[in-house]
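call fold target=Glutamate dehydrogenase
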Amino acid sequence: MTVYSGPVFDMAVNQFGVIANHLEIPMDERGRILMPKRAVTVSCPIHRDDGTVAVFEGYRVQHHLTLGPTKGGTRFAPSVDIGEVAALAIWMSWKCALVGLPYGGAKGGVNVDLSTISKRELEGLSRRYMQEMIPFVGPHTDVMAPDMGTNEQVMAWFMDTYSMYQGQTVTEIVTGKPVSSGGTLGRREATGRGVAYLAKRVLKELSINPGSATAVIQGFGNVGSYAALELQQYGLKIIAVSDHTGALHDPNGLDIPALMRHAGAHGSIAGFSNELTFDPEQILTLPCDVLVPAAMERVIDATVAENLKCRVLAEGANGPTTPEADLVLEKRQDEVFLIPDILCNSGGVVVSYFEWVQDLQQLFWEEEEVTRREYAILDRAFDHMLQRAKADKIPHRTAAMAIGVEKVRAAKNVRGLFP
């Protein structure tokens, strides 16, 4: 029996089983590596603007603290449940280990539809959630970050709430903060930049000229928009994008800076153009060189995987591809080059680590230094994944996850079991 359930958690368990079998991990070791160390569920009551009280359910899952504090985003969305949060925490562990960060994985969230609450209510909910989490988090225990539905402002409220409780400013309790409140230059762009940088690296591996290449972006939030902008700056034409309100398609290439300005002003791509509207159901199977799923989990199932017409699949979202789709992509390795999520979108946690380090030292870097260091870490992790995949003749996701799981397993084994 377990408190964790749902398709996203089942997917994380399935993926781990594949890796554990590949690494021949004994059955009696697997539970200790896979199961989260701690899960917290809290009630978050707030005063509504009309004077009533509403209660929202919040979660935080810390997967392991073997290598250092846990690290992970906080999601405000109506889909949030304990199983989804646990799966995201597990994936974060493999991600941090793959890129060599001294963290375990964590994730948190509140089950809330943001369209139903005001900004004042959002502040109240953010502060109450952090207040409830204070006994379980800290700069050397668990460091929060933004995720879907949260942003720099929410992180500033988190940091302020924790600091008021401590009686001093503790900037290192969260990352993804505004630069004016201890954030780092380059954090907002980091995940999307990393996705685009790795996609460009793969195009070079495949001898495809970025200047003649095309890209499709599913999801136009923080990750998707900056990935699109960076890819366009590399010379690619962004021929289609989508978000929760619809899709746009232009074979001649969309004006990404203009689209970002529109989305920033209106909260979505809706209303940008009536002439360019497109069926969002078809966006994943459009012919293109680079496809970036940067929205939700489990959007690429076996049927979609069979019909992908991209050369590079750069997973900007967490868990966008189901295990059934992975079996299809394994057969299509010569047609579709997969950059798995735990590598492809790791630029965000890499630069979050830089922010944490800068806050602890109170010594801040220029943006060029942040980006240079981010790309160096991504290059190293990409090389390790590729070498492992070729040496063991395994898919890229298996190689990337095997590296991460091995590091976590080795750290647990060398520390032993206490008491």
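return ok
The chain has a mean pLDDT of 97. The CA atoms of residues 220 and 243 lie 5 Å apart.
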